[in-house]
Amino acid sequence: MTWSIPLGPLVLPAQFLLLCLSAGLGLWLGERRARRAGGSVERELRWALLVGVVVARLAFVAQHREAYLAQPWSMFDIRDGGWSPWPGLAAAWFCGVMVTRRPSAKRRPVVLGLGVASTLWVVGVAGLLLASPSVQRLPAFSSLTMQGERVDLGQLTGQPTVINLWATWCPPCRREMPVLARAQAERPGVRFIFLNQGEAPATVARYLQAEGLDLRNVVLDLKAEVGRHYGSGGLPLTLFFDAQGRLQASRMGELSRATLQQHLQAIGVR
């Protein structure tokens, strides 16, 4: 199951909302503790949070720098979800300790805020992992490609498989499609399935022609069954299966070259 929470027209990954909740609660508790002593640590905690976020992003960019070199400005597009959480967490703690080194009266409220935020995030992520089924496999779903060929997803074992759930009306789906198309052309050892959700063949064909996308394995899911099977409330959703058909990673939201590369590593693709 892919955990996500709908907020009006938006569908946000549960881990992102967990991070916001953890940071917000830590900031509130730390500031509340400081105010009881007649002070304030809001500025210190905000700085620690900002430094943690920036370092988490920079660490991810450095790890996948080759994917960003072709389009350096894309490193500023955080919609791709590329973060390295542990360096960011370490940087937030380091900043929090340093900014309270001299005004030691602020140290306890800052440590309280960072401790609550860190603990809540770690426990929450662990809870989401434990709540997910231990082994998920390719769905028992059969449909037709745009060329009228029958495809049975449950039988697609033998090589790593990426299934992208998308629709022509979905802006992030459209933005990430060239990245996926390029990956399909460059990685013949990976099977890419473009599983359109709920649209007529003519609509899909017009979009592919207008965008000049030469994709293989464009499959129609007219009733959006696969999205419901994985508990997805929005698009795009990309699922990464190993050669044995076991789900190893998923991404709710837009992929960049770097985040695609990150998730391909989870299914043994280098």
UniProtKB/TrEMBL annotation:
Alphabetized InterPro entries for the sequence: Lgt, Redoxin, Thioredoxin-like_sf, Thioredoxin_CS, Thioredoxin_domain, Thioredoxin_ResA/DsbE_sf
Record field: transmembrane: 12-30, 111-131
PROSITE patterns associated with the record: THIOREDOXIN_1, THIOREDOXIN_2
Record-linked Pfam families: LGT, Redoxin
Domain Thioredoxin: residue ranges: 132-269
UniProt KW keywords: Cytochrome c-type biogenesis, Disulfide bond, Membrane, Redox-active center, Transmembrane, Transmembrane helix
GO biological process, one term: cytochrome complex assembly
Compartments in which it is found: Cell envelope
GO CC annotations, alphabetized: cell envelope; plasma membrane
UniProt protein name: Thioredoxin domain-containing protein
GO molecular function: disulfide oxidoreductase activity; phosphatidylglycerol-prolipoprotein diacylglyceryl transferase activity
